[in-house]
């Protein structure tokens, strides 16, 4: 069928094939440029991979001498984690402390009596108080499950409730505070108090442990005025002192101020100076001689400075029985009396108050105070839990014989940089040691060695053609090794990479000074080196050990880390001239060596940028060739088209001549 000619469908001379064969020759320059682009893209990928490997090495090197280096990390080790644990920050100092946990902090947790599953909570305003925090909400009434859901949603992380099946066929309501500490007692008011009493959680007792102690002690009802520049004190009587040590006791008062306007219009004149008597005279023989007047040099008169105006709103202070003191909030200026209230246990921490002192350092302000009293804002009745799962209490620990009390089990203000957590009470002493995080240092060194070896393997593969280089990398998968074989010797003629590889080997084998040891140190002294074969091992020739890879002897490294971290830290990075900038060490040298390759505008950027320029150049050439090839192909098609057209006309003419000849012969034969 291929030899059948169909006019208008198929070319008589198969011109399409002829044109395609001719265009293949014309496309040779374009094909060469496309292959060149593929080669450049591959080469660019190799450089980018080198850049990534160098970047990883630089990052791991900088981590060993920067301000975030692992040598400054601290960890806390407890001899009994079940009793006491701790977390240390970089600010912690190496030390060892002994602790005894007498008591852990707890929060109030109250459980109700077993209730019928159909028990319903009444409508009302429910108020729960945790210390000084109050949670109040209106509830329309409903089941225990619905009530606990509303309370948990409104509890704001302070109070929560849950429904438990303590006894089969019943439900029990558990209400608990989420804030531990003796000052964070859980109490109830309004409908909440009615609920806890109705379900057996607790009740109000009108009995008090101190029946003779009043709920309010008045210190002064009359107005006491303390003029500017004066000081007075209101002494606390003994009942007020006893009341002041209880939790939640308030000191109330009312204050007003009278501010005098500044003096105006008063002028200060210079003094008249001393009166100088006359000089006198002498007479003789009717002749009188007057003495010259005395002359006195007086200093220049300087007017005295205007009085300094003193404004001081800190006028109220509490004096405790132990001699310490605390300041009260600042006084606001007001011509009328305004009330003020402070909570005594927050200021004194349970210390008895001896007096309220008024210290008026002002030059133009008088202070008046009245209705000073100490009182308990809560009634004398106490809430008594019917079934307390736990009672709010502070954590009490003893550190080196010093007893510490805190409302939380997490104590962060005891040892700088260390948060101690009390977990369980125990009479057994617990030793807490703050020490360097040696595992973090070891991991950082291993990471550095790993990144160094991976970069060195990449450089060996690209600059050498020996297949044994790939075979030696037995930690890689078969696919990774096959990929590396494709790269073998790609940059074998690049002298820069060979020099870079030699500089890397030199950086990790050079000695570096330390301030702890008199002599310089080598990496091999801490178990890191290029050939760590022990005595007695085979000493035969091993080419793999001559390619610059680092090895780690973990036993030597662990022993060095346990001994002293300071020389190891200085081996990797040291400030030798005291300018607080590291300028020596293995990690510093590696960072300095690789920095020109990966920084902005560095060697890798220049290499890939040059390749990108060549790729763009080849792409522009291909675009030009495409236009030329398209024009060439169009010209060939036109030429062959004209040829076929001319042939067709000639064939048509021949056919016409044949027809004319046959017709002529036919006419002649008929005659």
- The amount of helix comes to 25-40%
> How do the strands of the widest beta sheet line up side by side?
1-30-3-26-27
SS-based class = alpha+beta
Poorly predicted segments: 1-7, 207-211
Q: What does the radius of gyration come to?
A: 49 Å
Portion in beta strands = 15-25%
Distance between the termini: 46 Å
Mean pLDDT: 86
Number of strands: 32
Main sheet characteristics: 5 strands, antiparallel
- How many H/I helical runs? 14
Work out the count of structural domains: 5
Overall form: extended
Topology:
Elements: H1 15-26, H2 28-62, E1 74-78, E2 84-88, E3 95-103, E4 109-111, E5 120-121, E6 124-130, E7 133-139, E8 142-143, H3 144-154, E9 159-164, E10 172-177, E11 186-190, H4 191-198, E12 202-205, E13 216-220, E14 224-226, E15 231-235, H5 238-244, E16 250-259, E17 281-284, E18 287-290, E19 316-320, E20 325-327, E21 338-343, H6 344-348, E22 353-359, E23 365-375, E24 382-385, E25 388-390, E26 395-399, E27 402-406, E28 410-415, E29 418-422, E30 430-436, H7 438-463, H8 468-471, H9 478-487, H10 495-509, E31 528-529, E32 551-552, H11 554-563, H12 565-572, H13 586-598, H14 603-670
Helix pairs in contact: 1-14, 2-7, 2-13, 2-14, 7-10, 10-13
């Amino acid at each position: 069928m291929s030899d059948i000619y169909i006019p208008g469908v198929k070319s008589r001379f198969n011109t399409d094939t002829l044109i395609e064969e001719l265009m293949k020759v014309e496309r040779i320059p374009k094909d060469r440029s496309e292959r060149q682009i593929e080669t450049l893209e591959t080469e660019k990928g190799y450089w980018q991979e080198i850049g990534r490997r160098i970047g990883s090495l630089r990052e791991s090197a900088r981590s060993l001498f920067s301000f975030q280096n692992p040598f400054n990390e601290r960890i806390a080790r407890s001899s009994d984690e079940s009793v006491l644990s701790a977390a240390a920050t970089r600010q912690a100092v190496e030390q060892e402390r002994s602790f005894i946990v007498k008591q852990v902090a707890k929060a109030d947790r109250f459980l109700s009596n077993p209730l019928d599953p159909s028990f319903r909570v009444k409508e009302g305003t429910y108020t729960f108080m945790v210390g000084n925090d109050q949670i109040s909400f209106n509830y329309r009434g409903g089941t225990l499950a619905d009530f606990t859901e509303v309370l948990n949603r409104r509890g704001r992380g302070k109070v929560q409730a849950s429904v438990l099946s303590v006894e089969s066929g019943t439900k029990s309501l558990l209400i608990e505070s989420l804030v531990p500490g003796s000052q964070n007692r859980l109490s109830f008011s309004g409908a909440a108090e009615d609920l806890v009493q109705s379900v057996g959680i607790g009740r109000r007792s009108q009995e008090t442990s101190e029946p003779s102690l009043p709920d309010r002690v008045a210190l002064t009802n009359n107005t006491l005025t303390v003029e500017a520049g004066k000081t007075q004190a209101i002494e606390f009587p003994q009942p007020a002192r006893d009341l002041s040590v209880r939790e939640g006791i308030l000191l109330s008062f009312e204050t007003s101020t009278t501010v005098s306007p500044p003096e105006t219009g008063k002028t200060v004149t210079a003094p008249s100076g001393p009166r100088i008597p006359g000089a006198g005279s002498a007479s003789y023989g009717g002749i009188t001689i007057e003495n010259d007047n005395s002359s006195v040099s007086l200093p220049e008169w300087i007017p005295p400075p205007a009085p300094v105006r003193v404004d001081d709103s800190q006028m109220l202070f509490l004096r405790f029985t132990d001699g310490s003191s605390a300041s009260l909030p600042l006084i606001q200026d007001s011509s009328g009396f305004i009330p003020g209230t402070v909570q005594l246990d927050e200021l004194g921490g349970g210390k008895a108050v001896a007096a309220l002192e008024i210290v008026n350092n002002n030059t133009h302000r008088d202070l008046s105070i009245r209705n000073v009293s100490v009182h308990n804002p809560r009634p004398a009745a106490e809430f008594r839990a019917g079934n307390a799962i736990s009672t709010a209490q502070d954590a009490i620990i003893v550190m080196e014989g010093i007893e510490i009390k805190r409302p939380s089990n997490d104590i962060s203000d005891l040892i700088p940089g260390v948060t101690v957590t009390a977990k369980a009470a125990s009479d057994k002493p617990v030793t807490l040691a703050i020490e360097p995080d040696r595992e973090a240092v070891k991991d950082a060194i291993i990471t550095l060695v790993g990144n160094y070896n991976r970069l060195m393997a990449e450089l060996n593969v690209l600059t050498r053609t020996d297949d044994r280089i790939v075979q030696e990398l037995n930690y890689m998968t078969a696919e990774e090794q096959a990929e590396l074989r494709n790269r073998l010797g790609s940059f074998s003629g690049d002298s820069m990479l060979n020099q870079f590889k030699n500089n890397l080997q030199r950086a990790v084998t050079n000695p570096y000074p330390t301030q702890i040891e008199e002599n310089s140190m080598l990496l091999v002294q801490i178990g890191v080196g290029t050939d760590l074969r022990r005595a007695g091992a085979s000493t035969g020739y091993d080419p793999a050990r001559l390619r610059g890879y680092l090895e780690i002897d973990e036993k030597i490294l662990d022993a060095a880390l346990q001994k002293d971290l300071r020389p190891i830290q200085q081996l990797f990075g040291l400030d030798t001239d005291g300018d607080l900038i590291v300028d020596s060490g293995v990690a510093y040298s590696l960072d300095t060596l690789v920095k020109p390759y990966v920084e902005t505008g560095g060697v890798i950027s220049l290499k890939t940028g040059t390749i990108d320029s060549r790729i763009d150049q080849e792409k522009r050439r291909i675009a030009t060739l495409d236009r030329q090839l398209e024009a060439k192909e169009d010209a060939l098609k036109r030429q062959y088209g004209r040829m076929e057209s001319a042939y067709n006309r000639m064939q048509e003419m021949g056919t016409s001549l044949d027809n004319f000849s046959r017709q002529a012969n036919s006419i002649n034969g008929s005659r």
